[in-house]
Amino acid sequence: MQAERSAALAPGITPARRITLDELLIRQWQPEDLRPRWEAITASFDHLRPWWSDSLIELATLDGQRVYGRNAEHWPTTSGDYRYGIFDHHDTVLGGINLQDRLGSGAIELGYWCHVAHTGHGVITRAAAALTELALALPGIDRVEIHCDVNNLRSAAVPRRLGFRLDRTQPREKSAPSDSGTEMCWIRDR
Questions:
Q1: Residue extents of the structural domains in the chain
Q2: pLDDT tens per residue, range 1-32
Q3: Closest alpha carbon to 111 in 96, 122, 121, 126
Q4: CATH: 3.40.50.980, 3.40.47.10, 3.10.350.10, 3.40.630.30. Which one for 18-141?
Q5: According to the model, what pLDDT value does residue 1 have?
């Protein structure tokens, strides 16, 4: 039996499934993205592994990607995620980004990862900016939160660049090899 999640979005209110930026396409993952998504994660595994919990390691397998893809077809997923791929205009997978509607109280969380070959080019910053604006325009959403470990300097640079404020640091269970056990919570209000 699954625990009931706390959602900020009212029933029937969902974010857009597709956002086109000048050089990026952010869209809901599709079944045909299975192999390109798996290849991007496999190529980036050494880059992602320090920050991915053991529960996410399954995503590096083709079977794990099949499960992820079936769940991503639901809008939202059973855990309250709106899962997007980030692509260039040649449909190359540049990374992934999620809106996670499980915080309740008018808040939605933003999570992301980048293909190692595309880091340092502003891909995640541009995608996170677009999804932040999208989320803050939704009825019932008053803030967007980004949570990351204090040691994950690359991840923390994104909310800093986007004008999020560091609301708090708090202890959390270590779940990935580079976790410090302290989480930063960055907030951007409407």
A1: 18-141
A2: 344 557 888 888 899 999 999 899 999 999 99
A3: 96
A4: 3.40.630.30
A5: 34
CA distance 177 to 190: 34
Q: What is the mean pLDDT of the chain?
A: 93
Could you tell me which of 123, 112, 114 has the C-alpha nearest to residue 24?
123
Task: Match 């209000």 to its residue by tokens.
Answer: 189
> Is a pLDDT exceeding 90 seen at residue 178?
yes
Cβ atoms of 25 and 89 within 8 Å: the answer is yes
Nearest alpha carbon to residue 37 among 78, 80, 98? 98
Task: Select from 184, 135, 190 the least CA-distant residue to 158.
Answer: 184
pLDDT of 4 reads 53
End-to-end CA distance of the chain: 35
Q: Which structure tokens are listed for 168?
A: 């708090």
3-state secondary structure of 13: coil
* pLDDT tens column, 41-81: 999 999 999 999 877 778 888 999 999 999 999 999 988 99
Listing DSSP states for 100-136 in one string gives EEEEETTEEEEEEEE-GGGTTTTHHHHHHHHHHHHHH
Assess contact for 36 and 115: CB atoms under 8 A.
no
